[in-house]
């Protein structure tokens, strides 16, 4: 997003955590993406990850190389615990992966123990098949129970996690465009993040309602990649600077360096003109 400040007659931009005074309590990641790589890594999940990235939503997606080894890599558990939510792409062959089921089991445990947010995507699968564990799911668990005959607790835990996630309201990809669904997902997660973290500290009386008004003008919950210019105009002492959370980065563009000195910027970058070699067109 881009902000225009009438006090400095300059434009500036900041990170998506602009209106997040409570961002100090935010996890390392906004979203943990759970999916079976062979099913969706190079199509739906890749497009979803790119959409999150464009919106400025910090998303963890496991390295393709990690999935070649068993058991599940410890860094994935750590990433789940450091994420605000998990978005789970439940594809037809998801239940065949012991890696995915172990990951899912930990996500559901985090949800039950710590209120971790979970958003399931039923990618051409019927939630009832997951709940009742019929069809491909039944086939998958016959395989797992044969492989883990000495650890029935593990497969039972996986069954329970799959049933629980199937009971969570999510998105169904069936007879619709993937791009449309991805837009809905980004909008929902973005809105929930905004509602969770764009709240004013209790000692800043009256700021909450003003933040809500500003968030409406910004339209952060809308799926719109266009550049926006928002002005924050008012007399000094109203707390305009206090709206920026810890870790915010503000970029101001202006031709008048004196204005930057007045604003008290930390550093100034002066882009140079193209040199003779760079300016030559082939």
Automatic annotation (TrEMBL):
Record bears the keyword NAD:
yes
Q: Where is the TIR domain?
A: 27-193
SUPFAM superfamilies tied to this protein: Toll/Interleukin receptor TIR domain
Q: Which UniProt keywords apply?
A: NAD
Cite the residue spans of the region called Disordered: 1-24
Low complexity compositional bias, start-end = 7-24
Query: What residue ranges are annotated as transmembrane?
Result: none
* GO BP term, example: defense response
Q: Specify whether S-adenosyl-L-methionine is a keyword of the entry.
A: no
Q: Which Pfam families match?
A: TIR
Q: Which InterPro entries match?
A: Disease_R_plants (IPR044974), TIR_dom (IPR000157), Toll_tir_struct_dom_sf (IPR035897)
Name this polypeptide is given: TIR domain-containing protein
Q: Which organism is it from?
A: Gossypium barbadense
């Amino acid at each position: 997003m881009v902000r225009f400040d009438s006090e400095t007659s300059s434009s500036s931009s900041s990170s998506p955590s602009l209106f997040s005074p409570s961002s100090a309590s935010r996890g390392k990641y906004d979203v943990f993406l759970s999916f079976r790589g062979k099913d969706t890594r190079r199509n739906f999940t890749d497009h979803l990850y790119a959409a999150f990235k464009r919106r400025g939503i910090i998303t963890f997606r496991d390295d393709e190389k990690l999935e070649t080894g068993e058991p599940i890599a410890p860094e994935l558990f750590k990433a789940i615990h450091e994420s605000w939510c998990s978005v789970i792409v439940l594809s037809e062959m998801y239940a065949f992966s012991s890696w995915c089921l172990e990951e899912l089991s930990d996500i559901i445990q985090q949800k039950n123990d710590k209120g971790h947010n979970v958003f399931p995507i039923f990618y051409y699968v019927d939630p009832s098949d997951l709940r009742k564990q019929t069809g491909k799911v039944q086939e998958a668990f016959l395989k797992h129970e044969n492989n883990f005959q000495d650890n029935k607790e593990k497969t039972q835990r996986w069954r329970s996690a799959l049933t629980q996630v199937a009971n969570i309201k999510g998105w169904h990809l069936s007879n619709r465009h993937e791009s449309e669904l991805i837009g809905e997902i980004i909008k929902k997660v973005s809105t929930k993040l905004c509602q969770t973290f764009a709240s004013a500290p209790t000692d800043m009386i009256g700021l909450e309602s003003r933040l809500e008004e500003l968030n409406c003008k910004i339209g952060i919950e809308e799926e719109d990649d266009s550049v926006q210019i928002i002005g924050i105009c008012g007399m000094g002492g109203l707390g305009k600077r206090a709206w920026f959370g810890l870790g915010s980065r503000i970029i101001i563009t202006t031709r008048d360096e004196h204005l930057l000195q007045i604003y008290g910027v930390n550093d100034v970058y002066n882009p140079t003109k193209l040199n003779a070699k760079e300016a030559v067109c082939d």
